[in-house]
Each structure stands twice: as C-alpha cells, then as structure tokens.
Write a structure and sequence with these properties.
It is globular and about 90 Å long. By secondary structure, it is α+β, with helices and mostly antiparallel strands. It has 18 helices and 28 strands. Helices cover about 35% and strands about 25% of the residues. The strands form 7 sheets. It has an 8-stranded mixed β-sheet with strand order 11-15-16-23-20-19-17-18. Strands 1, 2, 3, 7 and 8 form a 5-stranded antiparallel β-sheet that branches. Strands 25-24-26-27-28 form a 5-stranded mixed β-sheet, sandwiched between helices. Strand 17 (about 350-355), helix 12 and strand 18 (about 390) form a beta-alpha-beta unit. Helix 1 (about 5-20) packs across helix 2 (about 50-65). One zinc ion (ZN) binds near residues 268, 269, 270, 321 and 447.
Length: about 575
C-alpha cells in the first residue's frame, strides 16, 4: 500500500471527526506529509489538548464503522454550488483556482464531503494506526495577509508498532533539539533582542567546532582540484540585476543605499564567482574550473519561518561553482557524488536519500540543454549504482538538480548536498571559453554544496550525536582534573604536553570535589577525562575516563597521547 494514500485518507477521517464535533468549522486543505498528515481548520476557539483527544476518539469510531470513500465527479459549477451551500469558503476559493472543468469529491459517512483529487484507501477501516500530535497556526495558502487557520498534525503508519516507534523518536528528538543543546553546551545562541532574529552567535566552543569543519573542508577541496576564492559581502545592485536576483529574489535580499549607489548584501555566491571566471579569456584547456568559497550569505526570511539553525537570516555555505565542457559534465557530477559520500562518512552519517528534480513547466534553455544535463545527472547516479527518487517537474526553471539528504540517528532527513545545473547565469553573464576549433562557446555551469549551510549542518551534527561529538570534532577533547593542589604543576605539564600535540585540552582546577568535576565534564560531553593524583604524577601517568565507557585505568601519558592521536587521525565516529 502507498503509505501516502493511507496518511491522506487519515486526514479525511480527522476532518470528518472535526466537522462532526464542531459543524461550524471551515475546512482548509489536508495533505499527507513525511511520517503523517495535517489538516487546516478555521475555528474561532483554539483546539486544546482535550479537543485532540476528543477528535481521536471520534476518528476511532469512524474507522470502526469502516465507511467507504466514495468518489463522485462534478462539473465546476456543480462543485461551486455544493461547497457554497456547505459554507466551505476555502473550498470554494480552491475550486475557483482550479482550471479543470471536471472536479472530483469524496464522500465518507452520512454527511462528510471533501473536495479532493484522491486517491484514498477503500474504506476508513483500512486505517489501523494513527496519533494526533500537535496544533500550529498556518496562514491560508501560506500568505500572511490571509486568515490564520489551525493546523492539526498527525502521524499514521500501517501498524501500531511503527506509530509507537515514531512517537518514541519524536520524544528523543525533542530531547536532542539543537536549539536546546546549542546554548546549554555553550556552542551558540541565536536570539539577541537588540541584534535581531535569525542571526547566529557562535560562542568559543561552537566557533571552534565550525573552524574544525571548515579546516577539513578547505583541505578536502584542495585535494580534489578546487581553487579557493573569496568574494565581497556587498556588491552593487547592477550585478544582481544582471544575475536576475534583483528581479526574482528581491524580497529575500537586504539592500541599502550609500551616496546614491544601491548595494546588496550577498544572498548567493554565484555572481561573485562568475566575475572571477570572466576576468580573463578561458580556453577549453583550462576547463574544468572549480571555484570554492566558504561563502557567508544573508537572506531575509520571514520571522514566522525562522527555526533554530535550520532557517536563519545569515549563514555560510560550502559553495562551489564548476565551469566545464559538456563532455566533462558526467565525470564532474560523479566526482561531486563521491565527495558527498566521503564527507558524510567522515562525519558519521551512513544513510542518505537522493532526489533528482527534472524540468518544470516553465523553463529556460533548449530541449537539448535539458536533455544533456538531466542525462548527465541521471547517468552519474546510475553509474554510481545509487537509488534515487525522481521529482518530475521539480527542477529550478534554470536547470535540473540532485539533492542528497542525510539521515540522522533518528532517521530524520536533513537537506545537505545539492548539485544544480544552470543554463541561465552563463547566458546572462555571457560566459565563454575558446574551444579547440577556435570558436567561442558557453561553458556548462554547476552550483554545488556538500554540507550546504554550515549552520544547518551543525544543527544536524548536534542532534545526530545528541551533543556527544566524535573526538575529532569535539571542541574540548580532554579535561584534565588534578585531585589535589599539590598536583597542579603536573596537571599543567600534562596539559601543555597535550596542547603541544595539538590535542584540545583544558584543566579544571576549581575548588570542587572530584565527583562534581567529573560529573561536570560528563554533562559537557567531553570525550576524555584525565584524573591526576600523586601516583600519576610520580609515574608520568594519567588515569583515563572515556565518555560512554567509564574508567579505562591508568596509562603512561605518552601512551595515552599516541592512542588518542590515532583516534583523531582516523576520525573515528
Ligand atoms: Zn483526499
Ligand atoms: Zn551558486
């Protein structure tokens, strides 16, 4: 059974239950979503937790009655009359927006009617396991000037066991929420009233984590034939007019005027990289050219959609643009895919989901362009033996793309890598290279990110590991705890020795009990604790406690350093 059909059918049952309980409520829309469904309702009083329980009970009754989902076809006029009579204003609006002359409705039970294309399961009894989760405000059609409806979210699976597992995951996810972990581990905070919303402040530990990630990325990009570039944060509006962003992306851009010149705070890195490409004549022999930048961009997002590190107004992408010959496209894409998978592995993400988005209804570029690029992307995926979903018509108007989403420890998907072909920008900027026949031709341009937004990736990392980062990523790798003041000198010697070996170490020499210091280090999720007493000092030794494994006994300092250096070098996750 298609699980989405089951979930969508469950949303109908929820809407029916709501209408039976509160007949005056008006219906919005009710699609299936990942792991569940929702339905939007216009109801004066807010839904309470008790209401959700009531709705669930009513839904159980409807399911028990095993009512069939009956499809009927109507003309647009008949549909309009019907939903006007039912006083379903939002449905009336939807019908008016649908260009088709024939519409379908679905009936369940005595009186419940919904405008819907279908399909559904045969009857309500096919729904075996669901749970309503939460209520949130949602503007009709997502437009802020429209009425605010109440969206009830639910989950639905084929079996109760799966629902239980999902609920457990949600519980666990709540505990791991990076919006809680980040500030409590002193990695970052996001909201400063006087600075504004959606802006991230990295505290020392978070800044260190990000630097570690960035250092890794720089090295890997150089190793894989990329060249590093750095482009300005503000550039004149003219540039963004050429790129098209000024026309199509204006509402997300921060712009300002100085001395009659209009400037834009860059929302993307592409135009800057293009200017560097254009700075001299390029020959086919120069291609492929791969420009990489850890580019910080600013995009205005509406306050309502800001969410932790996932949706912010300023973030840094590991962004690259590749300019290549048509015949180089497939190998470039394969190399990027390898890069993505190698990187995911290094950071400890084993599982990914891949999506290929193809030509939408409105597009630019020739059919041949699209065919070549889409084939290039698809063949690269096939040659790598990867399975992927195709999102028909979901590509950008300027080219097809591959999205790779990582799956975390709780099986949740996080958007990370994107590989995007672009026919628009090379044309708009008049990019060329001199081919072997001496003629000027237009290069293929790829936009790609590996981790995507570093902010979002750090959020994913924290939640994936529940804050217990692998040793190579942990901002503090070793906490040194001397038992008595007498050992102070030895503790400093140990720390210096660790630091000499580029191991990130700290001493805890507060006037606290040993237990409390150990407990603190554990709460802060420090991977290694070294307890130093008289015996250790005499023997040049350290007593080792490893996070998650407890007491590992006493070791010679040299031996400990050698061991953890190996763990760091191998990037054990
Ligand atoms: Zn439906
Ligand atoms: Zn780009």
């Amino acid at each position: 059974m298609d699980i989405n059909i089951l979930r969508h059918s469950c949303s109908h049952v929820m809407a029916q239950a709501v209408k039976e309980l509160w007949p005056e409520v008006k219906l919005g829309i009710g699609p299936s979503i990942e792991d569940g469904f929702y339905y939007d309702f216009d109801k004066k009083e807010p839904f309470t937790d008790e209401d959700l329980a009531k709705i669930e009970k009513k839904m159980q009754e409807i399911i028990k009655e095993d009512k069939p989902f009956i499809r009927e076809e109507l003309s647009k006029k008949e549909a309009l009359d019907l939903f006007k009579k039912l006083k379903e204003d939002y449905k009336v609006e939807l019908i008016q927006e649908i260009p088709d002359e024939k519409l379908s409705i679905y009936k369940t039970g005595q009186s419940f009617i919904d405008l819907c294309r279908g399909p559904h399961v045969e009857s309500t009894g096919k729904i075996k396991a669901f749970k309503l989760l939460s209520v949130a405000g949602a503007y009709w059609h997502g437009i802020e000037t429209n009425p605010m409806l109440q969206r009830i979210y639910g989950t639905c699976f084929e079996t109760q066991k799966e629902v239980d597992k999902h609920l457990k995951n949600l519980e666990e996810a709540k505990k791991r929420d990076h919006r809680k972990l980040g500030p409590s581990l002193e990695f970052f905070d996001i909201y400063h009233q006087e600075a504004g919303a959606g802006l991230v402040f990295y505290h020392p530990k978070g800044a260190l984590l990000r630097t570690i990630i960035e250092d890794y990325e720089r090295k890997e990009h150089l190793r894989r034939g990329y060249q590093m570039v750095i482009t300005p944060h503000i550039m004149q509006a003219e540039l963004w007019k050429t790129s098209g962003h000024y026309e199509y992306y204006r509402e997300n851009m921060y712009t300002f005027k100085i001395e009659d010149k209009e400037f834009v705070l860059k929302p993307m890195n592409c135009p800057g990289h293009i200017l560097i490409y254009k700075s001299k004549t390029r020959s086919y022999k120069d291609l492929p050219i791969r420009f990489f930048e850890l580019g910080t961009v600013y995009r205005h997002e509406k306050a309502g959609v800001l969410h932790g590190l996932l949706r912010v107004r300023g973030f840094t992408q590991d962004d690259a643009h590749i300019f290549c010959l048509p015949e180089q496209l497939r190998d470039e894409i394969k190399a990027i895919i390898d890069f993505v998978f190698d990187t995911m592995k290094v950071f400890g993400f084993g599982d990914v989901g891949i999506e290929l988005s193809t030509r939408p209804e409105k597009y630019i570029g020739t059919d041949q362009d699209w065919q070549q690029a889409t084939q290039g992307l698809e063949q690269a995926l096939k040659e790598k033996g990867l399975t992927y979903d195709i999102n028909v018509g979901e590509g950008a108007f300027y080219g097809p793309k591959i999205d790779i989403k990582l799956k975390d420890a709780l099986k949740r998907k996080w958007q990370c890598a994107t590989i995007q072909c672009d026919f628009a920008l090379p044309k708009r900027f008049g990019l060329t290279y001199i081919d072997s026949d001496g003629k000027e031709k237009q290069p293929i341009m790829l936009h790609r990110v590996i981790l995507g937004s570093l902010e979002r990736f750090i959020g994913a990392l924290l939640e994936h590991y529940n804050g217990e980062l692998p040793l190579w990523l942990a901002p503090v790798q070793v906490r040194v705890i001397p038992i008595k003041d007498v050992i102070q000198d030895y503790a400093i010697k140990v720390m210096k020795k660790l630091q000499d070996n580029l191991i990130r170490a700290e001493i805890d020499n507060r006037n606290e009990t040993l237990d409390k210091k150990i407990r603190n280090a554990e709460i802060e999720k420090v991977p290694y604790i070294l307890v130093l007493g008289e015996r250790e000092a005499k023997q040049d030794a350290v007593s080792v406690r490893k996070k998650g494994e407890g007491d590992k006994g006493s070791k010679r300092l040299e031996e400990f350093i050698k061991e953890i250096e190996e763990e760091i070098t191998n990037k054990v996750t």
